[in-house]
Structures are given as structure tokens and as C-alpha cells.
From TrEMBL:
Protein name: DNA repair protein RadA
Keywords linked to the UniProt accession: ATP-binding, DNA damage, DNA repair, DNA-binding, Hydrolase, Metal-binding, Nucleotide-binding, Stress response, Zinc, Zinc-finger
Residues noted as binding ATP in the record, renumbered to the chain: 99-106
Gene Ontology cellular component list: cytosol
Residue ranges of the region described as Lon-protease-like: 356-466
Domain of life from the UniProt record: Bacteria
Pfam family, one: AAA_25
Motif (RadA KNRFG motif): 257-261
Homology family: Belongs to the RecA family. RadA subfamily.
GO terms (BP aspect): recombinational repair
Lineage start: Bacteria, Pseudomonadati, Pseudomonadota, Alphaproteobacteria, Hyphomicrobiales
Organism, as annotated: Microvirga mediterraneensis
Molecular function as annotated in GO: ATP binding; ATP-dependent DNA damage sensor activity; damaged DNA binding; hydrolase activity; zinc ion binding
Length: 466
């Protein structure tokens, strides 16, 4: 029998080495390589491979044309969750749900489990981190203690699959969390890259053969990425992140990957005493309580998938007492803020080199689309000049390095949402071509083509008054 050699596996990316190293050459992580039981050869990886068959099975090939059917789904009963997943849980699909500790992942899954179970579906909730009594206490606090959800506290994957295979296959199985699971086919500790990958493979095989939708809860690292090997994200059908700040009541459910639905939709929830409550009109709540007479605030008309969303962007520009000014941003991209500041200095004529700059997206929402450039620039100019922006005006537009304001998609939907909430004006990019000029806008929009137009419209009246 060949002698088994130890393998050293990176716990962040899954790279395999034949000796220990302080830094992983694949992902650059420090002190992430741990020893695991290996195979007969140190280059063969941490899991022994089976000998291949002498002859493969011939399978038929099909063309692109033919009858296609929509994947069968089971609605969860929570509209915001169904919006993100594309209409419900697809039979036999695997969803990886990640989020910070205490953000509300278990609360959301408990509410979805109870909603499905109350409709007569078989739902199993397997907790590897909490005892059954703890899960029951959470259900009682949410008022869901009478829901016929099957609970268990187990970490062995083979035992879980054997139990769930008894009787009618579950419509939904929740594994909380995948980092606590372990399989007997892998000789390593639970939570390691090898165990996470092996456990995920076994659960995926069970889901595909029985048609059960499985949700895997995943831990996240300090930078917000789902812990464990990246290959697990490629193995599952959907990767959903639960975002939010524990200091705010709002929670954002966002699909990072979805094979059976869109990846640009979000679900908005509000944390309350009775659990997570769906927010049907998030724009109204994100704008609630804003100070309209304060300089440095602008309302951004954004889009999250097919849903228009209005949110307040706050900026503070103050003289600095340090040699290097501070640049702090919450809810937006740091490099995007640096670009907007550079364009304002180079083409807008503003002097921001001796000022501290702070930018915040109110409500705990994180904005990723470049259409927020114009709203952020308006808030910065307003804070620097000390002149408040019109409270009934929204801003959106992408800014180029030359200072030109570029048009963005779905302008009609943005303006329609603003008009519905009582706004009477907008500052937006100038339409390109005759097609944009012929469109009837839901509310009047001031078209600007360059960043100098924005600066002149905000700062120039204050200079004339002085």
C-alpha cells in the first residue's frame, strides 16, 4: 500500500501545496494554509481519486432548437425573497446564502420555512450551530412556533441525507451552516476547504436526485466574501448575499449569481420585533426623516434591477488640519469618490485638496451603479459652497473623466418614481439624438452636458449674492 502524504490546503481559496507556507501564492492570504490528510501522492490533492472506467458511456447530443420548459418553482410566500430568486425556489436547486453574523439570515429562513410548511409542503431545517431548543425559541419570538417545520441539530452529511430521504422528499431543506458540516468520505476537520467542498457535493447530489431545493448558509470573511473555497460558489445554482448594517433597520437581499433568474434584483426588508418585514416602497422609507434645508444632501434616483429606488446621498466637505486630507465613504465605492473629486478639481474649478471629504449613503444601502456620480458631485458642491440643493429635485447621471455627463439607462422609470413621491424636478444628462428629445418625461428635467453646468447652477448664485 502506498504511503499517504499530508497535504497543505489554503483555507481561503483551496490551493494545495506539498509543504507549509506562510503566504498562499494563489490568493495572497497570510497564515491561511493548514495541514490536512492527503492522498498517496502529495501532488494528487487532499482527496484520493477513484480509478477511471475502462470505457465511457456514449450519450446522445441534441441541437439548440427544440421544446423548452420553464423550471418548476415553489413560491416561498415572501414577495421580496421571490423577487430575488426569480419567482420562488426551483426544484432541485442549491442556493448559497451569505451575510454578516446577526444580520438576520436565520430569521429570514425561519419565516420562509414557516410560510412553506403552513401551505402543506415538507420543510426541514437542519442546524449545525444551534440546538433544537434555540431554534424553537427563535420561532416562538417570531410567532411561528405552530408551523409544522421539521427541526434537527446535526452535522454529519450522510446522516442528514439518509434522514431526509425517508418518506416524501422535502420541498425545502435548510443547512445552517455549510461550514459546520462534515462528511465521512473526507479525512479532515469540519470547516476546512476539503470538508466544505465534499459536504457541498453530497448535498448537491441529493438535491438533483430528489428535486429538493436546498439552501446552504455560509459564513463571511472580514471583507464580506463568503468563507470557504470559491469553487462552492461555482457549484451552486444561486449565490445570495444578505447585506445591511446592524445600526439600521433595513436589510438588503441581493443575488450575486442566479442560474434561474435575474442577478440585478434586490429585496428590501425592515427588521422589527416580529422579525423581517417586507418593504414594498423602499424609496419612501429611505427618504424618511431627511433634512431638506441642510447643504450637502442630494436625492439620487437609482435603479436596482427593474425597481427604481430613491435614496439620499450626504456629503460633508470641511477644511482639514492634517497634511493629508481624509477621504471616507460609506455605501459607495472609494475609488469612485476619488474619481469624482479629481474631475471636480480638474474641470469644475473646485479646490478640494485642503479639505476633508466624507460621503454617506443614508439608510445603509450600498450603491454600485455609476449613475450616482452626478448626485454625489451635487452633494459635494453643495457642502463646499454652503448652499442647499432644491429639496424637490432628484439627480442621476454618469460622469466621465473629461467632465462630460453621460446618459444612463431607464430614465423614464427613475423620473416616474420621483414624480410618484412628490418630486417636481430632476437634474439629468442631456438626451442624445432625436429619440431622447421626442420622449415625454414624467416630470421636468434640467439637462446638463458638463460638470461645469452643475457647479455653475449650485455655486454661482451664492457668489453673486456675496
Amino acid at each position: 500500500m502506498a504511503k499517504r502524504h499530508p497535504s497543505f490546503v489554503c483555507q481561503e481559496c483551496g490551493a494545495v501545496y506539498n509543504r507549509w507556507k506562510g503566504k498562499c501564492e494563489a490568493c495572497g492570504g497570510w497564515n491561511t494554509i493548514a495541514e490536512e490528510a492527503g492522498s498517496a501522492s502529495p501532488m494528487a490533492g487532499p482527496v484520493a481519486t477513484r480509478p477511471s472506467r475502462a470505457k465511457g458511456r456514449i450519450f446522445p447530443l441534441e441541437g439548440l432548437s427544440g421544446e423548452t420548459k420553464e423550471a418548476p418553482r415553489t413560491p416561498s410566500g415572501i414577495a421580496e425573497l421571490d423577487r430575488v430568486t426569480g419567482g420562488g425556489f426551483v426544484h432541485g436547486s442549491i442556493i448559497l446564502l451569505g451575510g454578516d453574523p446577526g444580520i438576520g439570515k436565520s430569521t429570514l429562513l425561519m419565516q420562509a420555512s414557516a410560510a412553506l410548511a403552513n401551505r402543506g409542503e415538507r420543510v426541514a431545517y437542519i442546524s449545525g450551530e444551534e440546538a433544537v431548543a434555540q431554534v424553537r425559541l427563535r420561532a416562538e419570538r417570531l410567532g411561528l412556533g405552530q408551523a409544522p417545520v421539521e427541526l434537527a441539530s446535526e452535522t454529519n452529511v450522510e446522516d442528514i441525507i439518509a434522514t431526509l430521504s425517508q418518506g416524501r422528499p422535502p420541498a425545502l431543506a435548510i443547512i445552517d451552516s455549510i461550514q459546520t458540516m462534515w462528511t465521512e468520505t473526507v479525512e479532515s476537520a469540519p470547516g476546512t476547504v476539503t470538508q466544505v467542498r465534499g459536504s457541498a457535493q453530497a448535498l448537491i447530489r441529493f438535491a438533483k436526485t430528489t428535486g429538493t431545493a436546498v439552501i446552504l448558509v455560509g459564513h463571511v470573511t472580514k471583507d464580506g466574501q463568503i468563507a470557504g473555497p470559491r469553487v462552492v460558489e461555482h457549484m451552486v445554482d444561486a449565490v445570495v448575499s444578505f447585506e445591511g448594517d446592524t445600526g439600521h433597520h433595513f436589510r438588503i437581499l441581493r443575488a450575486v449569481k442566479n442560474r434561474f433568474g435575474p442577478t440585478d434584483e434586490i429585496g428590501v426588508f425592515e427588521m422589527s420585533d416580529q422579525g423581517l418585514r417586507e418593504v414594498s416602497n423602499p424609496s419612501e422609507l429611505f427618504l424618511a426623516g431627511r433634512d431638506m434645508a441642510t447643504p450637502g444632501t442630494a436625492v439620487f434616483a437609482g435603479m436596482e434591477g427593474t425597481r427604481p429606488l430613491l435614496v439620499e446621498i450626504q456629503a460633508l466637505v470641511a477644511p482639514t488640519s492634517l497634511g493629508t486630507p481624509r477621504r471616507a465613504v460609506v455605501g459607495w465605492d472609494q475609488s469612485r469618490l476619488s474619481m469624482v473629486l479629481a474631475v471636480l478639481e480638474a474641470h469644475g474649478g473646485l479646490k478640494l485638496g485642503m479639505h476633508d471629504v466624507y460621503l454617506n449613503v443614508a439608510g445603509g444601502l450600498r450603491i454600485t451603479e455609476p449613475a450616482a456620480d452626478l448626485a454625489a458631485a451635487a452633494a459635494l458642491v453643495s457642502s463646499l459652497s454652503g448652499k442647499p440643493l432644491p429639496p424637490d429635485t432628484v439627480y442621476f447621471g454618469e460622469m466621465g473623466l473629461s467632465g462630460a455627463i453621460r446618459p444612463v439607462a431607464q430614465e423614464q422609470a427613475r423620473l416616474k418614481e420621483a414624480a410618484k413621491l412628490g418630486f417636481s424636478g430632476a437634474v439629468a444628462p442631456a438626451p442624445r439624438g432625436d429619440k431622447g428629445k421626442k420622449e415625454r418625461l414624467p416630470l421636468p428635467a434640467s439637462a446638463i452636458q458638463h460638470i461645469t453646468d452643475l457647479v455653475a447652477g449650485i455655486a454661482a448664485p451664492r457668489r453673486r449674492a456675496s
